[in-house]
């Protein structure tokens, strides 16, 4: 139970800190930061794969698969948006 509370505490703090940081990003830095966030989501995919593979409980397996799917959607969608934005700067 103690580990769960610590995990919840870290999650809430990360959510609040992330919201504050993202809210202060100027539009000119949005694309480079989004590319960096895609790399972090790639790391999240690897972590979710490791945790899901070693899961002992069914609930952990299900949450791991959900995490893998959501992080994959984030990576693919982020790179698609980044590519479209960078295409605006290419000369014909």
From TrEMBL:
Organism: Gaopeijia maritima
Keyword Disulfide bond: no
Protein name, per record: proton-translocating NAD(P)(+) transhydrogenase
EC number(s) stated in the UniProt entry for this protein: 7.1.1.1
Pfam families from the UniProt entry: PNTB_4TM
The entry's keywords: Cell inner membrane, Cell membrane, Membrane, NAD, NADP, Translocase, Transmembrane, Transmembrane helix
Catalytic activity: NAD(+) + NADPH + H(+)(in) = NADH + NADP(+) + H(+)(out)
Main location group: membrane
């Amino acid at each position: 139970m103690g580990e769960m509370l610590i995990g919840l505490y870290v999650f809430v703090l990360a959510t609040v800190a992330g919201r504050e940081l993202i809210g202060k990003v100027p539009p000119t830095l949005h694309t480079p930061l989004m590319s960096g966030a895609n790399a972090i989501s790639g790391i999240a995919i690897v972590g979710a794969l490791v945790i899901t593979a070693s899961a002992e409980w069914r609930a952990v397996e299900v949450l791991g698969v959900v995490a893998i799917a959501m992080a994959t959607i984030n990576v693919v969608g982020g790179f698609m948006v980044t590519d479209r934005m960078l295409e605006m700067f290419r000369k014909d």
